[in-house]
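Good morning,

Attaching, inline, the backbone tokens for the sequence recovery test we're adding to the shared suite. The designed sequence is right after.
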């Protein structure tokens, strides 16, 4: 990391009484980036002491007027949350030790963010309900193996899931220019692995796959962008993917707008009941200086065909597509994704967000797609029924058997799994 020296003026008269928290708030005010106190770690080199106690004064650590303090900026730790209505949110964990953050405090954050009474809800991670306390121990994110960018799902208590032939449309949009030459085979293998794992994981679902290949304006119009429409035919999909080669490109920026337009106008996306996911893999941004920093670009003013990112993000919002971006080198594409997200958040009323994952890691990409599909299926197929529980012991001999269907994946290991995965057409309960 680059080390830079900043001078944050502090009233010398107040040094003795200024607390660590007050100093952090001043740093947040002066710093050019959003730097809340929980992302700051302060160290006083004079005694090599960590200024960890927010209520202690600077003078108690030996800090005096003219002292230097080292500021270490911590990584941002955010989670994705799918609300009861299927809306996707992002919540930052306000702690310098995010994995040690209590589940109870996460629930409080969600209650404020969603304006939802969480006492009537449960929070799921990988199909597992998060408990605030277990066997007298306060549960934390670490206890559930929750890392940054994990997706949580909020459902109503008493919810049951009924999935009847759920449909999924998954499109792979891939940069196939020359700069992808050293990565294209790995990406193709990753695409096929994700496809096969998704079919295995969601048995019983009606899953279709499409692939859009885009290059750049140095290629002929007829071959600059090619595609295979949504299909369940594994052989047809594999034949198209296997034939792909990395060609052309010229400059560093690529015809991403043309690829997006092809994905939205040439593919037969399903209707509103279909779970739609798009995985976009690229190593370089689109044309236009607003999307990148110091990248070789023959079209600095923007897409030569006049296609704007606002038009493309409107398509994402209107079709309700879960958009994942698989990066090769995030330093080249982060600015583009930031611009896309600003537009998408506004057009979807903060319902959708482009999420990023490293494209060179097949497992990470596969897990990301699985989470996206699972979250969409939960949101789309959840049906809420209110029942009043009778505390008396049932007369088991007089209760008839009821039939139900399991939701995919059919992996029942506990009563909690059974409760989540079984939809019963119950008679009235007295």
């Amino acid at each position: 990391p680059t080390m830079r020296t900043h001078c944050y003026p502090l009233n010398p008269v107040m040094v003795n009484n200024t607390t660590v928290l007050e100093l952090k708030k001043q740093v947040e005010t002066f710093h050019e980036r959003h730097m809340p106190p929980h992302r700051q770690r302060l160290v006083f080199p004079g005694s090599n002491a960590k200024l960890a106690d927010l209520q202690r004064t600077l003078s108690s650590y030996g800090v005096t007027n003219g002292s230097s303090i080292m500021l270490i900026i911590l990584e941002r730790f955010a989670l994705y949350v799918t609300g009861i209505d299927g809306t996707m949110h992002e919540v930052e964990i306000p702690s310098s030790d995010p994995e040690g953050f209590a589940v109870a405090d996460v629930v409080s954050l969600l209650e404020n963010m969603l304006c939802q009474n969480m006492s009537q809800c449960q929070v799921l991670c990988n199909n597992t309900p998060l408990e605030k306390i277990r066997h007298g121990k306060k549960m934390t994110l670490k206890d559930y193996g929750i890392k940054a960018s994990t997706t949580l799902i909020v459902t109503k208590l008493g919810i049951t899931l009924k999935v009847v032939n759920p449909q999924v449309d998954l499109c792979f949009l891939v940069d196939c220019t020359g700069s992808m030459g050293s990565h294209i085979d790995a990406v193709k293998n990753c695409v096929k692995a994700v496809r096969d794992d998704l079919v295995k994981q969601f048995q019983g679902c009606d899953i279709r796959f499409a692939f859009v290949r885009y290059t750049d304006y140095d290629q002929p119009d007829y071959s600059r962008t090619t595609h295979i429409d949504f299909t369940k035919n594994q052989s047809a999909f594999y034949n198209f993917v296997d034939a792909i080669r990395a060609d052309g490109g010229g400059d560093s920026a690529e015809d991403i707008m043309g690829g997006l337009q092809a994905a939205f106008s040439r593919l037969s996306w399903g209707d509103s009941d279909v779970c739609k996911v798009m995985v976009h893999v690229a190593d370089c941004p689109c044309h236009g200086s607003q999307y990148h920093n110091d990248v070789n670009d023959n079209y600095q003013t923007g897409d030569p065909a006049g296609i704007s990112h606002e038009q493309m993000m409107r398509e994402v919002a209107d079709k309700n597509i879960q958009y994942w971006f698989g990066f090769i080198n995030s330093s080249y594409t982060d600015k583009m994704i930031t611009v896309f997200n600003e537009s998408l958040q506004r057009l979807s009323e903060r319902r959708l967000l482009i999420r990023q994952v490293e494209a060179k890691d097949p497992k990470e990409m596969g897990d990301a797609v699985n989470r996206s599909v699972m979250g969409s299926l939960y949101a789309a197929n959840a049906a809420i029924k209110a029942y009043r529980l009778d505390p008396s012991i049932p007369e088991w001999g007089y209760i008839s058997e009821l039939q139900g269907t399991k939701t995919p994946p059919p992996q029942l290991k506990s009563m909690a799994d059974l409760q989540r995965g079984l939809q019963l057409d119950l008679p009235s309960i007295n």
